[in-house]
Design brief:
Elements lengths: L1 E8 L3 H12 L4 E4 L14 E3 H7 L8 E5 L1 E5 L5 E4 L9 E4 L1 H15 L2 E3 L2 E9 L2 E8 L2 E12 L7 H4 L11 E10 L8 E5 L9 E7 L2 E8 L8 H11 L7 E11 L8 E2 L2 E3 L15 H20 L5 H29 L4 H11 L9 H11 L1 H10 L1
Parallel strand pairs: 1-2, 1-11, 2-8, 5-13, 11-18
Antiparallel strand pairs: 3-7, 4-7, 5-6, 9-10, 10-11, 12-15, 12-16, 13-14, 14-15, 17-18
Helix pairs in contact: 1-3, 1-6, 2-6, 6-7, 7-10, 9-10
The structure holds flavin-adenine dinucleotide.
Length: 392
């Protein structure tokens, strides 16, 4: 039987961050992933903010930060576009990652901090002990058990670990967006340094995106809510690629499919001897679907709290509740606002989106933030005020 202080299941960005910070805090850490290559296949459009990386103390490296982004282009259903770039303060300016390299580098950071990495190791089941958990594992045909004082569930959107351990961590189907994406070449972008977002019927309950990776290479994808459409996400993507001027001559070299939990934090993100992080905990911006930075931040909080709890020999739910407090302080209020704004945005008809885009074309934005967008929205659309009034 292998014994450890902290076992992290899942070496995506959230798990590696948790493993790194638990190890930095002095705990004995095992970080495992069922994949034989951490980060591959990717299920992501790979956009992150500079601010987020800075907060996490991560220096961008050329190997995984493939493209610097300095603006956003919002496209209404009738093709009217709103450019947010130039002199505007852009907190979301950032990078397009190469996740297959980035995720491995984050796992390497955890290893350098002292965590033991186990690749191609699947967690198959969990049993509670008085002072921790036993996790049943399989690697290369071999079965074994790991006993841990603290279990960190970082097993992504389809997470099982939290539920196996007795927590309410299920994301309701109505809160799970279906994401689908091609990585394409021969993409003809108006500006290869700008993220493009397409709204309306093109992606019901979500939006379509083009995130540039190199001059003619981009992640072209969309996310839809199954309840809002009779077509599959794949059918929507094929239609989008055929009709969008930027992609009509493009060729796909990769297909990525994945769920994105956009309903906010799951009910239980901690319990006796357990913490849940990243997509498994619903730590995703509900408005954008972005979960890399938020998952890593919460992973960092989880790792730090776990290391302290081990030092104090107190892994009770009460001790570990500090983790939820830190996540709430950092993200709680924003989450609520983003959830409301998402509901509002996706309730708009194509005509309403078009008229807002027309009005936005003459607006001078000072910065790009949800509150600035809402402020301007209320100015240009009295209708929006009525609808938002119900939400805020
Ligand atoms: C189409 C799409 C586009 C997206 N675009 C963006 C974007 O541009 N920017 C952004 O910030 N976010 C984006 N996201 C969201 C982002 O990908 C996730 O929020 C992020 O990957 C979450 O990190 P994580 O570590 O929680 O989970 P994951 O990255 O999913 O990692 C979980 C890991 O757990 C492992 N695992 C699962 N079960 C087990 C088990 N039983 N045993 C062992 N290992 C296990 C998996 O192999 C996996 O490596 C997108 C999502 C989708 C679907």
């Amino acid at each position: 039987m292998i014994e450890t202080d902290v076992l992290v299941v899942g070496s995506g960005p959230a798990g590696s961050s948790a493993g790194k910070h638990a190890a930095l805090g002095g705990a004995k850490v095992i970080l495992m992933d069922k994949k034989s290559e951490i980060g591959s296949p990717k299920r992501c459009a790979e956009g992150v903010s500079k601010e987020g990386l800075k907060f996490l103390g991560i220096e961008p490296k050329e190997r995984w930060a493939t493209k610097e982004i300095d603006g956003i282009r919002l496209i209404a259903p009738d093709g009217t576009d709103v450019w947010l770039n130039d002199e505007i303060k852009l907190p979301e300016a950032g990078y397009i990652l190469e996740r297959k390299v980035f995720d491995k580098h984050m796992a390497m950071d955890a290893a350098r901090a002292g965590a033991e990495i186990k690749i191609k190791t699947l967690a198959k089941g969990v049993d509670r002990l008085e002072d921790g958990f036993i996790v049943y594992c399989e690697s290369m045909g071999e079965e074994f058990e790991i006993k841990t004082k603290i279990l960190i569930a970082a097993d992504g959107p389809e997470s099982h670990i939290g539920r196996w351990a007795g927590l309410k961590t299920q994301t309701k189907a109505k809160n799970m967006e279906s994401g689908i994406q091609f990585e394409m070449c021969n993409v003809e972008l108006e500006d290869p340094n700008v993220l493009e977002f397409y709204f309306g019927k093109v992606a019901p309950g979500g939006y379509a995106w083009i995130f540039p990776k190199e001059d003619d290479i981009a992640n072209v994808g969309l996310a839809v809510m199954a309840s809002e459409t009779d077509k599959t996400a794949y059918e929507h993507l094929v239609d989008f690629v055929k009709t969008c001027p930027a992609t009509k001559n493009a060729q796909a070299v990769e297909l990525n499919v994945g769920g994105d939990p956009v309903g906010g934090f799951v009910k239980n993100i901690y319990g006796d001897n357990i913490l849940v992080v990243g997509d498994a905990a619903g730590q995703v911006n509900p408005l954008t679907g972005g979960g890399i930075i938020s998952g890593m931040k919460c992973g960092m909080f989880a790792g730090k709290v776990a290391a302290e709890a081990i030092k104090e020999n107190n892994c009770s739910s009460k001790r570990l509740s500090e983790y939820e407090k830190l996540c709430d302080e950092d993200m709680g209020h924003k989450m609520k606002r983003y959830l409301k704004t998402k509901d509002y945005l996706f309730s708009l008809t194509d005509d309403e989106l078009n008229s807002i885009a027309h009005a936005f074309q003459d607006v001078k934005f000072e910065e790009i933030s949800t509150s600035e967008l809402i402020k301007q929205l209320i100015k240009v659309s009295p209708n929006a005020l009525l609808k938002l009034g119900k939400l805020f």
